[in-house]
Amino acid sequence: MLDGFDPNTIQDVVGARQAIIQLLNLVEGLAADNRELRDEHQRLRDEINRLKGEPGKPQIKPNRVAVPPPATNHSSERERRKPRTWKKSSKVEQLLVNREEVLKIDPAQLPADAEFQGDDDVIVQDIEIKTDNVLFHKDKFYSASERKAYLAELPPGYAGQFGPGVKALPMVLYHAANLSEPKVSEFFAHVGIPLSQGEVSNLLIIDQAEFHAEKEAV
After folding, report:
1. CA triple 21-179-129, angle to 5 deg
2. How many domains does the chain have?
């Protein structure tokens, strides 16, 4: 999960928080790719400058305090060269399964003596980004005696023309993935939501007192 953003603070409809968590994982990968591309871009610029006879970007290494090697008590060269056991951490235990499917084999493909021996479980990771535009039919009543209209309220998290997902995602893309406001607007356009740069700016600034207070505290 990305630092500085807690999806548990989002008050939304059922399922919206999980969608944000999945998007956070995607954005975290995009941010890493973005850093790699910037490093590669700098390396290419340095190479071009070198070919042109110009100096490249200086390599400034951070100051580091020399740490003496740990004391060893090996009695033989063989013990000093003993390889360490490397174990890869499992990501399967960290995955949330959203749905399950049972895959059957066509009986016509099996020999007569084939015996069923259980299931072979495989988790395949995938993500689905799509619009969730909702047309709300709100009840409306009018009282002649009170000269007052009564209108059904929207669900929690919905206000104005954008739902909780559209309100939360620009903050993730802008602050966590370092995307500019035009790029955030372009991302939503590709998904199918026309979100202007001005609307992106409003979503990042207006009614965000809680996040501004957290920033000041940090």
Report:
1. 40
2. 1
